[in-house]
Amino acid sequence: MTVRAVERALDILLCFLDRKDLTLTEISKVVSLNKSTVYRLLSSLEGKGFLIRNQETEKYRLGFRIWELSANLNRDHDPSVLLLPELVRLRDLVGETISLYVRDGMERVRIQAVESTESIRRVAPVGIRLPLSVGASSKILVAYGETTVVDQVLNDSGWPEGIAKPFYRQQIAEIKEKGFATSIEERETGTAAVSVPIFSRDKQLLMALSVSGPSNRLTIEKMKENLPIIKEAAQRMETMLP
Q: Residue 32: which CATH number?
């Protein structure tokens, strides 16, 4: 059982995953509620310190109460914290942006990233959600996930029209055999990536480790050259996780 008002309030907070500030009208459109209902919920959230309203722009942003709560997160076993030194080490070895992704339903979520030090680099905001249908990390999370994931992705309403489903299914099978996945301009023009899985001690998929950068620099040849380093880094990370 759920409480509708609580669900609606949480939906409003989730609007700020992709935006730093939003107006009442924008929030109403995202959560599909009328303005009067949203205004009452916003007032409650503002009163408890979860949101702050700019008096000049009339835009809302996350309040300091969010940061107070996050400060009490137990990070002893948080992979985004535990593996950060290894991500930095890998970045220094290959020179490109390093990311960790986990699967959440029909999306992948970037839980940690270390950007390349190159002047032209792949910018990787932590917390971004991306589709499972395209991208090297997406294909790793699908290939090594539960057996039903492939069919779920293929039957998802958001499936891109330009990708043939038989070809995708074949790709997934090959990735599981090879142990890595690549992508060149699949999701975004001018970018490329190579990804490998990170497993738990009982050999269950935990996340995908990705190296990404400009496609004119991170070529297929460069990916193959870096692959042993990336796989070694993934194996080292596996030993660090509880």
A: 1.10.10.10
